Amino acid sequence: MKKKVFSLLLAASMLTSVLAGCGNTAGGNTPASPAASNDTTTVDAGNTDVDTPATTVEGAGRVGVSMPTKDLQRWNQDGENMKEQLEAAGYEVDLQYASNEIATQVSQIENMISSGCQVLVIAAIEGDSLGTVLEQAKEKGIAVIAYDRLIMNSDAVTYYATFDNIMVGTKQGQYIEQQLNLANGDGPFNIELITGDPGDNNARFFFGGAMDVLQPYIDNGQFVVRSGQTDFATVATQGWSTENAQNRFDAIISANYADGTQLDAVLASNDSTAMGVTNSLEANYAANHDNWPIITGQDCDIANVKNMIAGKQAMSIFKDTRDLAAKTVEMVNAIMNGTDAPINDRETYDNGTGIIPSYLCEPKFADITNYEELLIESGYYTADQLK
After folding, report:
1. Residue 175: which of 25, 17, 360, 304 has the closest Cα?
2. pLDDT, tens digit, for every residue of 135-176?
3. Separation between Cα atoms, residue 279 and residue 103, nearest integer Å
4. Could you state, in order of their start, the residue ranges of all structural domains in the chain?
5. Chain centroid offset of residue 6 CA
6. What does the pLDDT look like over 356-368, one tens digit per residue?
7. Gap between the Cα atoms of 72 and 68, Å rounded
8. Domain spanning 23-164+320-361, CATH class
9. What is 165-318's CATH topology?
10. Which of 384, 377, 385, 383 is nearest to 19 (CA)?
């Protein structure tokens, strides 16, 4: 993995890393059908004021924004932040949510193409599912920005805007490493692993980045995975579903920890899977154990931050979607103006047709020591939202 060079640097700096955000390190809805219509319900993401890129386009340009679902809080925030910033830059925006149904997302994108969108910003439900519809976009000369999730096996993808997904996992792994003093030889400890949807390419980067840190401790016996479940296919969670995560952990706890054995840590790749783990622990584990395991997460969803404050989740990776939206708007502006978009990675993300030029924003970790500064003082949430 490319990011292993970060391990020594980040281990020293994790507890002071805040608010650097997404610094530059280089260089009218028209539903296709009732099933594909755009649900307009939104989640309040707090103050989303972010400097809009200075370059705007004279004349109305139309941008299609395809988000996978409203079922996860973060996609509501991504979509609304994107819409707000694109409209502030002068664009007409067609924002659609696909209810986590691939056929619906395909239908919505087809409608965006036929309705005159000049750029498509797409967070794919499943990375390999859009090849045919994106051929239509390519034939019409419509640029495609893969948003947060890489679209696989399509040469229609122009750019990729995301967070540094390897670093997300690296920071989760290093957090566990530091909290359990593994580098100084402490242990053995018991750990279990859970990651995201097998069809989401990001899940492999999250899991790989974390396991670069944790696997040596499993190999030397400082970590024991009592369930024996360590490979990606086994620990993946269909749809990033809280229910699926909870069901799997119900079985793990029943088989391996019901006798009073301590579970010391859970690597969970995001907040929805972490919530499933927490729900399972509360139902099946908490009454017989004094020590709550370290649980990681990602996205700083409101419910999970509340769990963090209550001591039920140790940390979550904070990905400020305002920053990612701003960088995506810069990409849209560049495309509309016929100039090069801001890019800081031309090596990491091969979608099966070649390397996709990418901009990687920097994720931060949040825990009980810094969540107020990261999440409240920055205006991402209000204090009342986290009560």
Report:
1. 17
2. 999 999 999 999 999 999 999 999 999 999 999 999 999 999
3. 31
4. 23-164+320-361, 165-318
5. 20
6. 999 999 999 999 9
7. 9
8. alpha beta
9. Rossmann fold (3.40.50)
10. 377
